[in-house]
Amino acid sequence: MKTTVALENLWLYLQSLPKSNKQWLSEKLQEDLHQEETAYISKEEVLAGIDAGLKDVVAGRTRPAEELLEELRNGL
User: Fold this and answer.
1) Letter string b/e over residues 4-41, b meaning 16 or more CB atoms within 10 A of that residue's CB
2) What are the DSSP calls for 8-31, one per residue?
3) In angstroms, how far is CA 76 from the centroid of its own chain?
């Protein structure tokens, strides 16, 4: 309940800000959301993934591309 009250108070405060400050805040919040959505993968992680994939191919651990595409379509 305290969180709800605090957020309502924050909202009331934000409504009192000038339009230029609201615009600035909006842009900052959008940037923050975008950064959360964009996961960073290091070079080492990329190379390790490629290495693991090549080892799977050499070992015969593969599957048809159609199976992968179907999994991607279904969001699994």
Assistant:
1) eeeeeeeeeeeeeeeeeeeeeeeeeeeeeeeeeeeeee
2) HHHHHHHHTS-HHHHHHHHHHHHH
3) 17
Instruction: Please report, in angstroms and rounded to a whole number, the separation of the first and last CA atoms in the chain.
Output: 36
Model confidence pLDDT, tens digit, residues 39-64: 778 899 999 999 999 999 999 999 88
| Residue 65, number of CB atoms within 10 A of its CB | 8
Q: How many CA atoms lie within 13 A of 37 on its CB side?
A: 6
Radius of gyration in angstroms for the set of CA atoms belonging to the chain, rounded to a whole number? 23
- Measure the CA–CA gap between 14 and 8, rounded to whole angstroms: 10
Tell me the whole-structure pTM to 2 decimals.
Answer: 0.42
